[in-house]
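Hey all, quick one. A colleague (J.T.) asked me to put the adenosine-5'-triphosphate job into the tracker so the inputs and the structure tokens live in one place instead of scattered across chat threads. No bug as far as I know, just bookkeeping. Sequence used:
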Amino acid sequence: MSAHANQTQSPGGAAGPPALSGPGGQGTPGAAGRFVGPKVKPRNTYATVRRLWSYLYRQRAGLLIVALLTVLGSVIGLVSPYLMGKAVDDYLIPHDYPGLVQLCLFMLGFYLLGSLIAWVQSFVMNGLSGRTLQTLRHDVFEKFQQLPLQVFDSRPHGELMSRATNDIENVSNSLNQTVIQLLTSLITIVGSLVMMLRLNLILTVVSLLCIPLMWMATSKITSLSRIAFKEQQQELGALNGFIEETVSGQKVVKAFRREAVTVQQFQDINGKLNRAGIKAQIVSGMVGPTMNFVNNLSFALISAVGGWMAFHDWTTIGVIVSLLNYSRQLNRPINELANQYNLIQSAIAGAERVFELLDMDTEYRKEQTTPAVRSVQGEVVFHDVSFGYSAESPILKQVSFTAKPGDQIALVGPTGAGKTTIVNLLTRFYDIHAGAITIDGVNITQIEKNRLRSKLGMVLQDAYVFSGSIRENIRYGRLEATDEEVEAAAKLANADSFIKRLPHGYDTILTAEGSNLSHGQRQLLTIARTILADPEILILDEATSSIDTRTEMHIQDAMKTLMKGRTSFIIAHRLSTIRDADLILVLSGGQIIEQGTHRQLLAAQGFYYNLYTSQFQKSASASAGETG
Ligand SMILES: Nc1ncnc2c1ncn2[C@@H]1O[C@H](COP(=O)(O)OP(=O)(O)OP(=O)(O)O)[C@@H](O)[C@H]1O
């Protein structure tokens, strides 16, 4: 469960998230028409940066402003040390105090301008990166709506979600800081060097002596801190995963009285995270003092050599002051680049995972745009259909049957027999490997998925409701439906009476999990939603499983009206509900082992007969127990 959480990034996280792995991660080599998992391309930092740049480039006007301001800000930074040297040589040493005050005031104005530029620059950059990320988030979310179900099946949902949240967040952190930083660093390094060389060649060489030392120290600490941050991320992932599991499994934790054990387990993980966090902070905390030491070493060298040169009149105190400041300016970007390295790495890794998601095949990619399907009569035929969710394990084996227009087809059989799989194929949630499925003689692969699904109405086992009002939830079936139509559908689904009893009626707000409704009530809502959608073909997957017998009778009546004239597929465990079906398909191990009407199958005294009589006896003895 926590696998996805292991991808979680800490804000200060150094290394990129672990490469995608796990079942389906690499995709399945597939024959034509089969799902081929998302292609994982080899890591290509250059391509990732270029693509990220293409997103940024859409804001080129803002980028240009930022670039101009950065150049201006950097130039101000470059002139300041020169002015300091001038202050010493031209005003301080000759005791020209009025001139010194004038220069200081000028410098003050200069610094103020620098701060103002920095502020405007970060304001523009924030807006720019914000809009870029908005576009990126939009693209990712849009992609989620188009990905085939296999992608969601083959990896933890949290792992996909973390691409839309953590990974984009990483890109965001970095975009904001590094774009300006990189440009500033570049200008500052080149500009400082030029100014230093103009002032004094020997002192410039002396100040450069410490740079290799600084570079070595920084890269060593950076690589150590990357490992430490990665460890911290993993522990954070484990902690997040554990919290997520225990929150969603609260009922089970409480029912089995595992609160104390759970807290103990949490303490262990929490302790590990704490230790990893301390280690990461200690290692990364070494960067600052080490840099200070090397900076000061450079300072000492320049002061010593510069002092000796000034003593021999080979240079002036003002030049030494300027050079000391330029040397600090030169070291700072190198230092900062080292610090930014982690952030950049993390952003590139994040961007790579986001782009990898954006590059996945959508389920509509290979669609032929066929002419609109005529109004559907509802003849559904399965011709020798074979299918497996993965290439290695076939589930359905050569399933064939014919549903005539308006027929009620019941799918029965033991759990895992493949009943839901059959309807999954009809809706083209998954594409078949062999055989053909036709609706009114047209192969469903020739019908656009959107169009096909508009003809099908589903009431699923999982009665899913969205956060929003009851009215909105029912209207999900047909967005343009009027309030009256919504209420009429609810009446037909027998949901109207319980909705009206709620304090806010149809305007009652539901939570995403629908926890303020019972499971049965949620199911009634989803039935109303399907009734409103008014589909030509109906799929009812255990639709009445959570409804009491009395409500079930009402629903059966409503459904009978609804099913009239529509081909309907009903998956039911309670065989009493499908006695009137036109065709009962008995599935076992992915094959149809018997088919016929209730009467025919009872007369055959086979699998169905045994299933039915055992259920019938059970319910008979249960009701005898109740009355007795
Ligand atoms: N998304 C999936 N990915 C991989 N395997 C799956 C997936 N969905 C179902 N299966 C497998 O396919 C087989 C058939 O499942 P299916 O849901 O069709 O059975 P069912 O007859 O509807 O069962 P039940 O009555 O319990 O709902 C099972 O072995 C199941 O493990």
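Adding what we noticed when we looked at it: The CA atoms of residues 78 and 625 lie 93 Å apart. Residues 1-42 have pLDDT under 50 and may be disordered.
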